[in-house]
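Re: the 363-residue chain
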Amino acid sequence: MSAVDATTANAIASSEEAGRKAKESTLLTPRFYTTDFKAMDRIDVAPIRAEWDAMMAEYEGDNNHDHFQRTPEFGVEAQAQMARMSPELRQEFLEFLISSVTSEFSGCILYNEIQKNVSNPDVKALMRYMARDESRHAGFINQSLKDFGIGIDLGDLKRTKAYTYFKPKYIFYATYLSEKIGYARYITIFRQLERNPDKRFHPIFKWFERWCNDEFRHGESFALIMRSQPHLLRGANTLWIRFFLLAVYATMYVRDHTRPMLKNAMGLDATTYDYEVFRITTEISKQVFPVSLDTDHPAFRAGLARLFELSTRMEAAKARGGLVGKLQQTGLAVAGFFTFARLYLLPVKQHALPHQVRMAPAW
């Protein structure tokens, strides 16, 4: 089967297929989370009260309340643009939208569940605001999927997708990075298409700038929470920080290189794009993390390339099936574990945390 035939065979052509894609639980797909609500209820933001109150005033001001309004560019015009895409690019773009809906809706569910299960007024208000933002994001993306007849039933997704339990500190590390790297990804795409409007093959990309500023503010919220609990940022917990930094970067690298046509259509090279996103995320994360990864280290770059190679071979082994395919998958999983471990053990950069926590989205 040729690459084009394989793409056509796996094409997402219905809401049911889009829903199944959103429910997949793999190393590369967004997950739904739950956590310890009692521990969340005990959070005390007194040490960073001034910055916290300023941030909450911004949430209350809701500067994006009128942003997520569809224009005539959507609908018929967007469908015409999609019709001109190659089957491979169309598939990658739809997978991007489905992954984005799932990720945004994941945040909406988590934040909403926390606010429903805590009485702490600071935490309750924050989670309500963030759930509001993520609901807008997920709904806006889903409308674009509905333009092509493959909108996702978010209610069904909430009921049927598997949930992963994370301790609050893991939620803080992982969600902080998810929000900040989301900002870095969206703003890098927005700036590229701002310079090259002929590469903007769908109108949704015009919304990315103010949209990703929501992501930035969400990350600021978790930065403040972590800085209010200094023990989360020192000692053995720095090992967890290193783990989550590497996991988030490695997942993004493998996923983006699995969908290279999407970046190519924007005039971007997947590798160059990823390392620019890593650079921005690393600079931002210095506000809260005392360590950062040396993403320019040759061994780091070789390790990510190796993970992508192993992932590609793993998919081929799964497609092969049978005893041989299963043995290949086992061997590749072991190779992936040791590659990740070698990356984890690379030297990291140490730095002092700034006195002022909050940053501005200046990229």
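Confidence is low (pLDDT under 50) at residues 1-9.
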